[in-house]
Amino acid sequence: MDSVPNTQRATLALLPSQQMDSRQLYFAMLDERCSTVGQIDELSGSISRGFLLEQLSVAAAIHTDFPAEMRSLPDVLRSAHDQVAQDYQCYLDERGTGSPRRYFSCRSHAMYFLRTVAPTKLVDGAWLYGLLQSWQDPRLAPLIRTYLEELGCGNLLQNHVQIYKRLLARYGCDKWQDGPNEHFTQGAVQLALAHNADEFLPELIGFNLGYEQLPLHLLITAYELNELDIDPYYFTLHVSIDNASIGHARMALQSVLDCTPRLGDAAEFYRRVGNGYHLNLVGMGTEEAIASFNLEQELLRVLADKALSGAKLHSDYCLVGGRLVSEWLSSSGETSELLQTLQSTGWIRRGKSLEQSRFWRLLTDEQAPMFGVFDGYELQLLKDWILDDADRTPTLKRFRIRPSNGHVKVTVVPQSDATIEQIIAHHIGREPKPNSCADVDVLFQQLAGVDTKEQAFAVLTGMLSPANHPTPAGLAATRLYADLFQHVT
């Protein structure tokens, strides 16, 4: 899920020049290959802590519905959930009477959104990673279970990051790494929490509480993606698994209540939980990401990007408007004029069928000379721009959220009294040998001779990091960790 049901967001200003910006820090933390929780480069660790403090300062100025007293929290969250349900019904009623889509003007707009929020979705659940070292603390067990479920309990088809990666690849939207800094702020916050969990535990718990609440934009996004023939499963999955009855939203609230100190300063703990709750609102949110789309400007950006790599690759006989294509592409500042010239010379005929545009055929026809130059997202941008308003009326389809009980089933060792060695041996025996991975083999070699829970979790934990868990070895480690965790809790 994504954030508290509140449309007010705050965007991060860049960090001081001697530090990493949010995009650089995001990749520094995501690319690390640590073996245990919290082991990252010292410079990155120091900067991630400073970054987190700065974002907490930004978040403190944001108004939300977070109540001043903990006793009011369950009622406030329940009321917010009911309001979302009511607002969504109003949305459905409006659509039923012919109102246009609220979010996405065309299919490429929706695909732009998938790319824009990718840095956040591809670290789904990351903030909880830092809790794995506290597996012996029963108060944190529901949050660790939440993290394991975000990882699909090691099931490739249910791992949330893998689900989103497949979604991006399916629609040619997997070029997201060069986005602006504001696209990476929320993901960087989540990774920074993961690596500073000990110091910022109340903030982490509050962040988790806010993130697991049901926002209206999630429901509308899923509805309109489905309407535009884009698979909404990643989003509908979060509607069901995060439910307030037995799902992650319920566990998030319970973790606040369970972790509040009985003998310590409960008021200070709750204040910090509120700070973490507000932290959901820094960076670019869903509605801001959607509103930032401009079809023609995005198409011009893509064409300018193509010009950088294609300027020297066109033959001398390629002319548009009396000029060599290589001349047009030699300066990205002429992209807008080139687009206009393609129209005035008949290479593109806006508002007409795609087949009437010669430029489109150069990209898509069988044995087309420019086939493969544009990815799926870029082709959709061009298609929507050529068709103009001709392709914006949706074909309404019946939309249902896929049922889910809110939990991923874990295949456990049948014997409740199985030893650690037996559980590990069970998993080694279940690994598919013909498709074995060298990293998986190394992982199980490291587990050879392990006979205590402490030793097993010490080996496995690093492979459940945001950087590692979507890999074959990470998935294998997650499956074993989930079995061991269920066995000992």
Give your account of this protein's structure.
- By secondary structure, this protein is mainly α.
- It has three domains: 22-291, no CATH class; 295-391, no CATH class; 420-488, no CATH class.
- Helices cover 52% and strands 1% of the residues.
- The protein contains 23 helices and two strands.
- The protein has helices at 22-30, 42-60, 73-96, 107-116, 118-121, 141-150, 160-170, 185-195, 201-211, 216-227, 233-241, 248-259, 266-278, 286-291, 295-310, 325-329, 335-344, 358-364, 376-387, 420-430, 438-446, 453-460, 472-488; strands spanning 319-320, 323-324.
- β1 (319-320) and β2 (323-324) form a beta hairpin.
- The chain starts with 21 loop residues before the first helix and ends with a helix.
- The model is unreliable at 1-18, 34-38 and 393-414 (pLDDT under 50).
Helix and strand topology:
Blueprint lengths: L21 H9 L11 H19 L12 H24 L10 H10 L1 H4 L19 H10 L9 H11 L14 H11 L5 H11 L4 H12 L5 H9 L6 H12 L6 H13 L7 H6 L3 H16 L8 E2 L2 E2 H5 L5 H10 L13 H7 L11 H12 L32 H11 L7 H9 L6 H8 L11 H17 L1
Antiparallel strand pairs: 1-2
